[in-house]
Design a protein that fits this description.
homodimer, alpha+beta, HIT family, subunit A, ten-stranded antiparallel sheet
Amino acid sequence: MPEFRKDPVLKRWVIIATERAKRPHDFVKPKVEEKPAFCPFDYGNEHTTPPEILAFRPADTAPNSPGWWVRVVPNKFGAVNPELKAKKYGLGMFDAMEGFGYHEVIIETPDHNTHLALMDYKQVEEIIWAYKQRYETIAKDSKIQYILIFKNHGRDAGASLQHPHSQLIAIPIVPKRVQEELNGSQEYYGYKERCVFCDIIDQEMQRQERIVEENDSFISIEPFAARFPCETWILPKRHMNCFNDITEKEVKAFAMVLKNTLYRIYKALDNPPYNFMLHTAPVTGEGKTYYHWHLEIVPRLTNVAGFEWGSGFYINPMPPEEATKYLRAVEMP
Amino acid sequence: MPEFRKDPVLKRWVIIATERAKRPHDFVKPKVEEKPAFCPFDYGNEHTTPPEILAFRPADTAPNSPGWWVRVVPNKFGAVNPELKAKKYGLGMFDAMEGFGYHEVIIETPDHNTHLALMDYKQVEEIIWAYKQRYETIAKDSKIQYILIFKNHGRDAGASLQHPHSQLIAIPIVPKRVQEELNGSQEYYGYKERCVFCDIIDQEMQRQERIVEENDSFISIEPFAARFPCETWILPKRHMNCFNDITEKEVKAFAMVLKNTLYRIYKALDNPPYNFMLHTAPVTGEGKTYYHWHLEIVPRLTNVAGFEWGSGFYINPMPPEEATKYLRAVEMP
């Protein structure tokens, strides 16, 4: 049974994921990346995944058969499990909870060899619609506090399958980093009576030093205190604490900035591994006035990262102003 | 000039390290690890590092010549610089500070091909004495708030040189993770009037489920809410907030537990890349009653880590009780 456990000092929850339990030998890295012969996300292999929860497909095709353009399925080796309870218990001085939650995979396209940076805008929009539909449905489960939508691209960013996909994990806990963002932006609001993210957008638009992409509704920037080379944030220009409030027009604008930004990263860093994560308000709607959803993209250039895991203290060898120049210099298709 | 920058939402400081500025191309990973022909940390190459700050060497050898068994030098490409000022300034809505601080390298042995896990206890003790001497000296600079001692082992853990070495960064800021530990342990103390780390040690000794190594003065455990497979913490049994308060007898005991623990990790995971970091109180001495120094060891099994960077939310596929069994099963030399 997967279990949530809380660090008694940092109050940081982790999932001990027994469904994907590994032995030490499993972590010894293969020296050469083998090409897997079989991909469960390809057309014709739909029966090898758990049955689909959502699929965008022509009306005349059967569920779990080819024809779809975006498909959502439960993660076969889910870190959390919807059959469990969201009940907390003590273990001596420690606190734990059964590993209740939803873990889903958004298969972004039937095309095994493409990638968000290379898709057309329309396909990226469809993926965002799939995020939103799953968000809306899962948010109705009152035991769920937070819905994490994220992507691991490339083996070094934690992707175990090459086929383009993102993931969704819905849990009865607000992740620590998100809670810290809520607290920090609430504190700023308390002092200034303004949203800190709105202020950042205003200042970046005035200074024009760290803007990567921009349209009417969205902006992507290199953050002032970037932790990593080419770390990039995408923010809606309109103040909005919850991703789910996005309008149809904004989905289009978001897709455009997302695809263009990822294309610039793809070109400038030669298709680097990366993670992105959608930072949005808890499903309780906390932070209406002071929080502002956004997407954080972190290229994983592993020989840079070091002791940062242990300290929360980052050394970034590329000033974000320089990173902006490199990304803006990319020739767009 | 290196610069500290503060994230306005999370209040997390980063160093923008211009001395090691890189262009995007520098991050494209070499496919094969080349064996460098020249190592600045080998005997005979002492003139290629900045002049030594501390060396344990026979009285009849000259500084910056062979004969030493532990040697400390400034980092040639320091992330921070002792020539700068520790003055904060504003940049529009943002906060920054000149990159003042010390960045040193502790060369752990003249032997290029060994590693802490394989050294004899005596050599590990000497390395700990070097940490302590540098700590004591730098702590006298009243502009310094925190002294970080850490090690990156292996390229995937951020080590750019293979020769065994650790590092020290002294900065006018308390790192975020350390501040959070101070806050969390203070809160626990406020409620229980006991040190949370002392309580953890007591409980682990009663339960005997997660102890890896133990002697009179030190214990190493897999933490209850471990983020990573084989994440391991080493704690002094005596309540002590600052590493610098370690006694001569305790240095011996620490060296023994450190070496044995690293040996077990080395064997069980086939010499994995890892980071360790010494978590100790700020040099101001904060946390006398409630904080407890310790060393956190994190093996870097990169295909596991994923979106955790962005969320502070960890999925660990190996329960710490299992990890304990694997580490304890290692046959000791």
